[in-house]
Batch of 4 targets.
Target 1
Amino acid sequence: MKNPIASWLVISSVFIAGLAVALSLTSLPTGAGNPKVLTVSFSNTNYKAFLEEAGRRFEHDHPGVSVIYMTPVATHREHLARTLRLAVAGEIQDISLQSYDQIAILMRRKLAIPLNDFIDSETDWNSLGLTAASMDACKLADKVYALPFESATPTLFFNKDLVRRAGGDPDHLPNDWDGILALAGKIHDLDDKIIGGFFDYNGSGNWTFQAMITSQGGRLMSEDDRAITFDGPEGRRALDIIRHFGQTGMVDMTQDQAFQAFTAGQIGIITQANTQLAPFEEEAKGRFEIQTMRWPLLSDRGRIPIGGRAMMMLTRDPQKQKIAWEYMKFLSNPQMQTLLAKMTGTTPVNMIAIREPAYLGEFYREHPNQRAAIEALPRVTGWYTFPGNNAARIFELLRNHLRDVAIRQTDVDKTLAAMSKDVRDLLP
């Protein structure tokens, strides 16, 4: 017979542990009110070791200052939700590493602190080394609301073995969509069970669809957020490309299923974030080699939406803001950006770190598959979020339409009209 007291103790300990975790996710750490204590939030435990090391180094350089990290949540969406809950409760972290597409949400809710005055106070801001394009991705209405922390961009991954079997040359891949789709068709012709090309329509925030629009110099909406602008020639061309991907053997799959199929050698070309390079290469090791390519640009005005995290100042305490600004600059410097890349595998946004041999210059010369992400950096733009409270619903609707075009081969013009109507109905 089980000991009821022991059982009660187990249940109680589980409850208390769960309560402690819940509290750590919805309230600020002890000491957060101290003007010398910086509270910092982020998502994804893969960044934990780097940030803890960065915190130790910053504290060493700034005696008396403490950096406390909130318990990380798993996803960007959870991170934003927790930040908004804290704001409603009347308390908020000092600095938050938020996804680029969430900068606008925190700005519209008047939680983000503009950084223009801090930047203007620097005697030689450009000497820090942050790329102009990544800085522009943090701007809204001529105000800077974040500093770039890292970069992720939509990228093309090729199975070099399948490319060769289809008569292609991995060292001279086509760099336009017509050539890429023609190659995908030849790969599919090798075997009906092989998917020539897979367009990832499941990405968060319709990231790859945005890339199709912005790479043509277009936008999802007008700069004042009042008019839909993806329903013109750029949208039609984007859907036509996605529809042609579907004709190379695509089947409906989740992201995880598509990743597994690619690394198993069942997909010739796949669109995905450059951050998937390391796991793709690890899983494909011993079976085939991978070649990457920067997202094709269809216009001189073409841009690529930036993903990953940006650093946002949320504290309104003037004394804390000064320390927060120093911390944000610290994470942006070449030394810390180099450490970030080495510890997490992400792409830095500091060009000094990227180019100089003393930092990462030699690494990028010796790892050509990393160049796609580096080549994209000068052409990045913001990751757009629709205004109002229905952004998540809009993204879900658009994803369904993208799936229909690729998998069900729905008519491009009819689908584009339906997409435009569905979005318009959900806008404020």
Target 2
Amino acid sequence: MVFQNPDAVAAGAPPWHLPAPQPRPTSGGIRGFTWALWPWMSWVLPVFFAFHGFLGGGGWGTLLLLFASPIFIPAMGLLGMLPRFILRKRGHRTAPGPIVWLLFVNWWAWVAFTITMQDAGDSGPMETMLGGVLPARLSSGFEQGIFLGAVAIACLSWLAILFVAIAQPQPRPGMPTRGGAWDAVSWNAAFLVPALLVGAVALGVQVTALETDAAGDTVSQVEALPIAAQADRAEANYTLTQQKLSEVRELIADDGWSVRDENGGWVRGPAFASSYGSCGGSDAECYVFEVGFALEKAPAGFDSYDEAWNSRLSELGWTASERGYGWTDADGFTLEIDQRQNVDRLVVAIESPSWWGDTYDIRQELGEADEDLGLGLTYRFDEWPPLR
């Protein structure tokens, strides 16, 4: 039976000389679904990234993204739509098979780096969106690994989508819009990529649980201790820190060491301090001890830059730091000596490695320190202010 075009016959052309009209490709399967979803994801994901900080305790990054959003969102949305514009101009009405799986990889990468983006406020780094919903701790180092990996995957997958879109020919009449190997790959990508993300997070939680502090204890081991035992542990760690510094002070002077200056300020901050950056990348509470002593007049002939001084420190187990200044030892302590030219005052300070413990709870157990602690006093090399 010959197909007749009624409109053409009405115009006077013989029906057997007219080509049968070809059906336009219709949306179908995962390719049609992805094609319809593409505009939504191109705009929703940048909006989600720009304003996700408002779903939790936003920091400076959230504020910067807010001000940048009038430029960032349209730019990212148009870049996301660019390959689709190219394909549509060439007559495509469904996403080509080689592009569909790349789109799912790109979209899930956007989700991954959004929820693992590290923000910061006045008090330091803040919890990520992912960290806020997890029931267990996840190392911030592991989160940053996911963040950087997701950003790289998002950029590379977008470039791949763009190149494939440019290389795609016009759709052939009757070209199938569903089925085939590419659809199987796309379905796998749609569900396998988030499964891999969940698996990476689960692995990170397990690795984080095994992280130890300077004493070799895990967070769970320390949290299981009564708060009184944690306070005793902190006091022992403080004593260890002071003992290490006293060995160095003995090499310089026997007496005349002070911890407060003439204005009442600490030579090197309060001894007991929390330190997010030293927590081994975990969001668990930890603390370090940073203490310093000053001599108003350095001993005659003392020179901390002298090679002989380095030799004396090496006998105590100190080695020059890779930072180019200061010294470190095998236990993770860091030593600094501040001796400036044409200034008589000499300052020695030490910073300990970190130990697990909630600084607020431990401070409450130790009791409030005397505000006048060490004020107007000098100490021998083997003396120091008490922690409580």
Target 3
Amino acid sequence: MRNRRSARIARNDTRRWVVKRRERTRQLIELGGLVAKAGLIDLTDDDRAVIFGLLVEGAAKLRGERGNEALALWRRRGQRAFSLADDDEASP
């Protein structure tokens, strides 16, 4: 009973630092979901060094001379993948 009360209080805590922490936690969970949705966990056999290396390589490419082109390309691919995933979820 005491745990339920504590959990309810924690969910409704509106102190600035608590709200910011909750937002950051949600963002990290969503980003982890994208890594999973892209299939990187299975493709790398859950090797976090490889996944991090891919992300570092992507960041380096974005910092390069043709970063805007890469960004536009990856945005289109991501939007297409999202729309395909939405279509798959809508199919019975």
Target 4
Amino acid sequence: MNQTEKYKLDTAVDKAIQRYMVKQKSICMYPDCEVEAINSHSISEKQSLETLNEQGEIRNLLAPKSRKAYPNKSMLIEDCGIPHASTFKGFCKLHDEMFARLDKSGIKSDKDIFRQVFRSLSYHVFREKVIEVIRPKFKEKLDKEKDEDTHVELDLGYSNAVEQTNTRIEKLDKQRLEVKKILDIMDDKKYTYILTDFTHPDFPVYVMYKKLGFQVPVAVNGKVSFRFRNNSEGVDHNIILNCMPAEHTTDLIIITDKELHTQHSDYLAAIINDDIYILNLIERFMVMNDEWWIKPSIYNNLSEERKQILIEDLYCYGEGFEILGSYDMSIFDELRLQLIDVMDDLAEHRRLHELKKINELPVRESFEKRQKRIQPKFLQPFFIPPA
């Protein structure tokens, strides 16, 4: 495929995605509802996103965006209007009202937590299904490249990718609908604790909630899919992080498969009981996905060198870092310094380690090498070579 054909393919894909996300009609994701969905936020506009607004009536945040411009593809951090941040066509006007309490007063009860869990899972099912829009375009590309020697391998590779993606969406949607059943039997009488988790065997996912006593100036609704090492069952597992800033606090929700909680319960407990570990986890998630919206001054105050490192790490999906590990460069310098100052029991080696993230640039391989290594992963949703 020459550069002109690649450009045409990218243009066709971009138009298909735009139609799906903005123009195409979608049906409400509430069980048994057939009414057309409206565009709504997955993170509260009033309670969270507006608290990051620094531009008055302009109402812009900054967010990652992939831009295709052959022969190069690039990742940028660009303006994103608050009316569009975290939005999806998930629910009709009637059923979107089930989240009105979140938008009015934030998380106050255990049921509020599960309202947000249901909204977040619905958002990610909707986002995952964008692949169904892109697949036909990619299939056309494969068909053009077929010859007698490669057609079987190409067809199998395409089928493998379709099967894996469909399995992942089905699992996520099943969890979402089971959460809805739990939500239906809950009430708002039980006020939530500052730190709580939900491990009941009837719950389809593990959910952890913590209200932080400070604002993390970014909204995140990020999902990372992964497989355990030496996993022979070929099943994708998910971990979803919701970071929802308020004026002086932050609601943090972690949603994971029960398998991940079982294997890493001690580690998750250690993270959630330490504010600096939590900040590290949020930064780690930010370089593994593009579902975040940041207060503009935070990004703008980074040096040009650090901006470039962040953008390149985003392009590579944080390749080379552990999912639950820390990021080796500070994004939130001022907040990091505040947390270091108030944590009297912070060990000296940890204090120095966190300061190093502010004062020194991390060392990376050349972007060209990383780019070459990550390229095959971009194709995985469309083509998985036969074993």
